[in-house]
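Hypothesis: this fold can be encoded by more than one sequence.
Test: take the structure tokens below, design a sequence, compare later.
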């Protein structure tokens, strides 16, 4: 199992997904809905979305490697199942965002409806991607921390912790 400083790679790599996918979601919606932002930042947002897309297989493959080295549970299997779905949703975000950018370049020669449809599809795929990232994160936290029990200090008061 690959490790970095003694830690499994998956909890480290997954942070790229946790940061890049929501950034791609928010900026993708802005670019799809605001023509001035699209013309100025559209291609940079597409690159960001591509980076998010590439980070997903890194996270899922490191997660599969970790899964083979720990005791399996229904929570881990549910987390892995949700994680496997994210690539499709972010790929749809990338493809629809690319369509918005390409249609914008031909806006003077095409009817308006294809660009509007592409923008709606960006918002839809971004929304699904955001929801899926939250679901994956929640299931991963439950899988990692479900057996952890917190105990109160011996005195039972918070004042003792302060001083």
């Amino acid at each position: 199992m690959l490790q970095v400083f003694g830690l499994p790679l998956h909890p480290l790599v997954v942070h790229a997904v946790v940061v890049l996918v929501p950034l791609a979601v928010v900026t993708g919606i802005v670019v799809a809905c605001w023509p001035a932002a699209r013309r100025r930042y559209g291609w940079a947002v597409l690159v960001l979305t591509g980076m998010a897309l590439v980070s997903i297989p890194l996270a899922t493959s490191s997660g599969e490697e970790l899964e083979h080295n720990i005791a399996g549970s229904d929570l881990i299997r549910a987390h892995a199942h949700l994680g496997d779905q994210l690539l499709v949703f972010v790929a749809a975000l990338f493809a629809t965002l690319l369509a918005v950018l390409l249609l914008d370049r031909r806006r003077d020669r095409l009817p308006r409806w294809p660009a509007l449809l592409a923008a709606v599809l960006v918002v839809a795929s971004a929304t699904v991607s955001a929801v899926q990232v939250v679901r994956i994160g929640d299931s991963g936290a439950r899988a990692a921390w479900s057996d952890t029990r917190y105990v109160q200090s011996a005195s039972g008061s918070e004042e003792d912790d302060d001083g």
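Residues 3-144 form a domain with the Four Helix Bundle (Hemerythrin (Met), subunit A) fold (CATH 1.20.120). Helices lie at 9-33, 35-67, 74-105, 113-145, 159-162.
Hypothesis status: open.
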